[in-house]
Amino acid sequence: MPQEIRNQQALIVKVISRDGILFDGTADSITSYNDQGLFDVLSMHTNFISIIHKEIILRRAQVITNRMPITTGILIVKANRVEVYLGILHD
């Protein structure tokens, strides 16, 4: 798929914790960490699910718009939508 087409569609992102919705909006890319290391989710990313840790970084127009430190969570990508569920581990 040509790069200019990929960049035209923003990801629809929702970050949810036990306390409620922390972010509900769009991003051009998302960066986080899993057991394999640092990874990015871009527009039109393949379906994907991962346990994440350390932080979530949201970008628009190549600028960091939101940086959230986290302990653990689950990141799910499907059909250009990203859902992140935080606080998945019980103390």
Helix content class: under 10%
State which percent range the strand residues make up.
over 45%
The tally of structural domains comes to 1
Report Rg: 13 Å
Count all strands and give the number. Answer: 7
The CATH homologous superfamily corresponds to F0F1 ATP synthase delta/epsilon subunit, N-terminal
Which residues form runs of ≥5 with pLDDT under 50? Answer: 1-7
Sheet with most strands: strand arrangement: 2-1-7-6-5-3-4
State the name of the first-level CATH class: Mainly Beta
Total number of helical segments? 1
Report the major sheet: 7 strands, mixed
Q: What is the residue-averaged pLDDT?
A: 89
- Structural class call reads mainly beta
Q: According to CATH, what is the topology?
A: ATP Synthase, domain 1
Distance between the termini: 44 Å
Anisotropy-based shape: globular
Helix-strand sequence: HEEEEEEE
CATH architecture: Sandwich
Description of the structure:
The protein is mainly beta and 91 residues long. It has a single domain (3-86), classed as F0F1 ATP synthase delta/epsilon subunit, N-terminal (ATP Synthase, domain 1). It is built from 1 helix and 7 strands. A hairpin with a 2-residue loop joins strand 3 and strand 4.
